[in-house]
Amino acid sequence: MAEQALEQYASPMLSIQGLNAWYGESHVLHGIDFDVPEGQVVTLLGRNGAGKSTTLKSIMGIVPRRQGSITVQGVETITQRPFQIARQGVAFCPEDRGIYATLDVRENIELPRRINSNGLTTDQILELFPNLRERLHSPGSKLSGGEQQMLAIGRILRTGARLLLLDEPTEGLAPAIVEQIGDTILHLKAQGYTILLVEQNLRFAMSVADHHYLVDHGQVVDRYDRESIEQNADALLARLGV
Ligand SMILES: Nc1ncnc2c1ncn2[C@@H]1O[C@H](COP(=O)(O)OP(=O)(O)OP(=O)(O)O)[C@@H](O)[C@H]1O
């Protein structure tokens, strides 16, 4: 455990305390606690079913029932509806990417509502992902997995959100595309975005993130900074079952 680096941030972009969540009768988060400092990249690691996606969905307000505290820039959001949370500057990129199959690239980009004037324009998004410019008039269903992922990330930048929740952005993608997604994440960090990432790919997580939290059975059971994750990588790979 290396916690010392985490203590120094006075005002985190996101702070979660005692988060519980349920799907019907099924109680899946059991008191999640962690902070995400502004301008940093943080990952949630853990085995399948540990509760990582549910944590992201809870932050976005899209699980049926949650309790505890989730503050975004000091504002409590636990009782807010998803559209109110979005207005606090939070955007979620789901694991299935949520691309509309019958809409083309431009239509997919232009669908989300802007929440403020910080949102990127379509041109700025296409500058960030030049491959998408070549595919501008292709329907979502004809895009490769990598193109869909880039579109899914690009699209949420249009909203003006500054806290980006990305659920397994590298899943099923070829190494060259994973590298491109990593470059994009680092570019966004350099632009001041705060990013919370769910990842199964430990090496990828290590290449982009400042801090990591290990989730198990709906709780945060360990935390690592850049140095301590290097030291614990082998043990963690065994623990993650990958
Ligand atoms: N819509 C749902 N309805 C009921 N149970 C769910 C639902 N979504 C997830 N669960 C359950 O909640 C638990 C946590 O799932 P979650 O998707 O958050 O895990 P995860 O760590 O993101 O893993 P994965 O990578 O498999 O998605 C699991 O037991 C899962 O089966």
TrEMBL record:
InterPro entries: AAA+_ATPase, ABC_transporter-like_ATP-bd, ABC_transporter-like_CS, BCAA_Transport_ATP-bd_LivF, P-loop_NTPase. It comes from the Bacteria. Residues 14-242 form the ABC transporter domain. Pfam families: ABC_tran (PF00005). PROSITE patterns: ABC_TRANSPORTER_1 (PS00211), ABC_TRANSPORTER_2 (PS50893). Keywords: Amino-acid transport, ATP-binding, Nucleotide-binding, Transport. Signal peptide: none annotated. SMART domains: AAA. Belongs to the ABC transporter superfamily. This is Amino acid/amide ABC transporter ATP-binding protein 2, HAAT family (TC 3.A.1.4.-).
